[in-house]
Specification:
mainly alpha, 5 helices, flat
Length: 140
């Protein structure tokens, strides 16, 4: 019975550490995502209206703090996430055979249904293009 509890504890601690790592990575990318979202929102409508005005204030805050805003929040923190994320994925890829098997099965399924996957990708790209064009037309 003690062996079962020890095994469950190890699995939970491992899952907990990966959950903490995922949460930390999301928090580290949040400032850059906020900035990119503010850039997008401020171009949707004229700056005198909300939420474009608030988005412009966020962009101005980042621009006024070049070393903290640009270098730290937009380059430094996402770079840390990129490096640590690659390390974690590489470690999990090497240590977990189930992950490799699942990835192989997924890849085989995608190849078996390649035409459908390509149609889905083309549809998503067309939707993205139409969204960008529509937003551009709304801002003019």
């Amino acid at each position: 019975m003690r062996v079962v509890f020890t095994l469950v504890y190890k699995v939970l601690m491992k899952a907990k550490s990966y959950a903490i790592a995922a949460g930390t990575e999301l928090l580290l990318t949040f400032p850059a995502v906020l900035f990119m979202a503010a850039l997008f929102v401020r171009n949707i409508q004229p700056l005198q209206y909300e939420p474009a005005h608030a988005a412009q204030q966020i962009v101005n805050w980042y621009a006024a703090r070049l070393h903290i805003g640009l270098w730290g929040l937009l380059i430094g923190m996402p770079s840390v996430v990129l490096v640590t994320g690659c390390g974690i994925v590489f470690h999990k890829w090497r240590s977990e055979s189930e992950l490799r098997q699942a990835a192989g099965q997924t890849f085989a399924t995608l190849i078996a249904h390649l035409e459908t996957v390509l149609i889905a990708l083309a549809t998503a790209v067309a939707g993205g293009v139409l969204t960008i064009v529509a937003l551009h037309l709304l801002t003019d």
